[in-house]
């Protein structure tokens, strides 16, 4: 019944990340760091986009902050968690800092960006994009915490343990909140038809 | 989960959520799904929404350039990176312009304030007076104790002044001619 083609979206292989980190720390080879970033940048960018309500300039600024912090602090990585979890946690905390700096009022103004029309796409993708747009508009109506949960678990494929570590919550709490968020999104989409 | 769902549906949806979290589906669930369109819809949603959401998010960011790693990678290895070198060209440019604008504004304010506080002529007069006083002091110092003082003010104590000067090291006998006349 389970369709491996659809979910979960396979995460990158952790051991490859570890190899790249070790090689970078030992040799300082910039290609290793570049490869590491390229493997995970889409995930980081999606998380920042969701948390910062699609404010492009802010997403790019925070992304640079994250990469700088990563570049400086990679020597402190202990190889005890997956690099993906480590990086997404770092991105999440930076985004929370940015939100605090930004203030609530500006944030609400920018929330409308989530509903802005998307860029032009090839015709064969239009139908898929229409469906995506519908889901995205429902997704926008969830709370920040619900959006983070759904993104990190169902799009980025973090395990329950990784999710709990990233959000600093017990696994049971993460699971119940995740189930509630999925149910709520399903209901929003059903009512929006 | 919908609170108004029948108990069977609630159990099935809980099982579907667990399945979405990576667990196996219990046997016998398919029969319920075959006859319950609502639960079937929930299963389809769980199956399809992650990819659709990812597609939607990626579409929003299509065309965004990759992160600017050049400045970061051209810097030295971790722990020795100058923050200014890696904070992004756009942001760096913005910072420089902001700094230049602030400096220009500060200069204008300071200039205007100085103009208001000190009238230009007043300043010129003060400079002239200061210069004159300095020149006077410059000349007065040797005059007070020497030959030129006696020439300017010959009346009082000229003999004492000249005598005094004549005993100064290197100037001995300078006033002798004058005094003898």
3D architecture notes:
Chain A is mainly alpha-helical. Chain A folds into 2 domains: 1-115, RNA polymerase sigma factor, region 2, helix turn helix motif (Rna Polymerase Sigma Factor, Chain: A), CATH 1.10.1740.10; 117-193, Winged helix-like DNA-binding domain superfamily/Winged helix DNA-binding domain (Arc Repressor Mutant, subunit A, Orthogonal Bundle), CATH 1.10.10.10. Chain A has helices spanning 14-27, 30-51, 56-73, 83-102, 104-110, 126-140, 144-155, 160-167, 171-191. In chain A, helix 4 (83-102) runs parallel beside helix 8 (160-167) and helix 7 (144-155) packs across helix 9 (171-191). Chain A is globular. Chain A starts with 13 loop residues before the first helix and ends with a helix. Mean pLDDT of chain A is 84; it is low at 1-10 and 115-120. Chain B has helices spanning 7-20, 29-35, 37-60, 70-74, 83-86, 89-117, 120-145, 147-152, 158-166, 176-180. Residues 78-90, 142-152 and 156-166 of chain B have low confidence and may be disordered. In chain B, helix 1 (7-20) runs parallel beside helix 3 (37-60) and helix 2 (29-35) packs across helix 3. With 181 residues, chain B is mainly alpha-helical. Chain B has 10 helices and no strands. Chain B is 71% helix and 0% strand. Chain B folds into 3 domains: 7-60, no CATH class; 66-77 and 84-117; 118-181, no CATH class.
Summing up helix and strand content along with how strands pair, one would put the structural category of chain B as mainly alpha
Based on helices, strands and strand pairing, what is the structural class of chain A?
Answer: mainly alpha
Topology, number of strands of chain B? 0
The CATH architecture of the largest domain in chain A is Orthogonal Bundle
Q: Let me know the average pLDDT of chain B.
A: 71
Overall geometry of chain A: globular
Helix content of chain A: over 70%
Defining traits:
heterodimer; A: 193 residues; mainly alpha; Rna Polymerase Sigma Factor, Chain: A; Arc Repressor Mutant, subunit A; 9 helices; 0% strand; disordered N terminus; B: 181 residues; 3 domains
């Amino acid at each position: 019944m389970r369709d491996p083609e659809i979910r979960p979206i396979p995460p990158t292989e952790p051991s490859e990340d570890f190899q790249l980190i070790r090689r970078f720390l030992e040799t300082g080879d910039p290609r290793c760091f570049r490869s590491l970033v390229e493997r995970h940048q889409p995930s980081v960018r999606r998380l920042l986009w969701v948390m910062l309500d699609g404010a492009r300039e802010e997403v790019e600024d925070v992304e640079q902050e994250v990469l700088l912090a990563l570049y400086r602090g990679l020597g402190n990585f202990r190889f005890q968690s997956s690099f993906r979890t480590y990086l997404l946690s770092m991105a999440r905390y930076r985004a929370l800092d940015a939100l605090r700096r930004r203030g609530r009022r500006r944030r609400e103004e920018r929330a409308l960006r989530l509903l802005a029309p998307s860029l032009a796409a090839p015709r064969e993708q239009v139908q898929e994009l229409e469906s995506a747009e519908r889901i995205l508009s429902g997704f926008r109506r969830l709370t920040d915490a619900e959006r983070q949960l759904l993104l990190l678990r169902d799009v980025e494929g973090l395990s329950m343990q990784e999710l709990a570590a990233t959000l600093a919550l017990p696994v049971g709490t993460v699971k119940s909140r995740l189930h509630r968020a999925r149910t709520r999104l399903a209901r929003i989409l059903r009512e929006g038809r | 989960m919908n609170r108004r769902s029948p108990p069977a549906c609630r159990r099935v949806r809980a099982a579907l959520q667990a399945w979405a979290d990576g667990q196996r589906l219990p046997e016998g669930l398919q029969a319920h799904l075959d006859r319950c369109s609502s639960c079937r819809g929930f299963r389809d949603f769980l199956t399809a929404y992650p990819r659709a959401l990812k597609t939607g998010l990626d579409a929003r960011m299509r065309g965004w350039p990759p992160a600017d790693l050049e400045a970061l990678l051209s810097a030295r290895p971790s722990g020795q990176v100058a923050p200014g070198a890696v904070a992004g060209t756009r942001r760096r440019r913005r910072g420089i312009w902001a700094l230049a604008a602030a400096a220009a504004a500060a200069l204008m304010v300071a200039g205007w304030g100085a103009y208001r506080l000190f009238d230009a002529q007043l300043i010129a007069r003060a400079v002239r007076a200061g210069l004159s006083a300095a020149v006077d002091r410059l000349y007065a110092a040797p005059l007070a104790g020497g030959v030129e003082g006696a020439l300017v003010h010959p009346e009082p104590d000229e003999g004492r002044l000249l005598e005094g000067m004549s005993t100064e090291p290197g100037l001995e006998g300078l006033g002798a001619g004058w005094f003898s006349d």
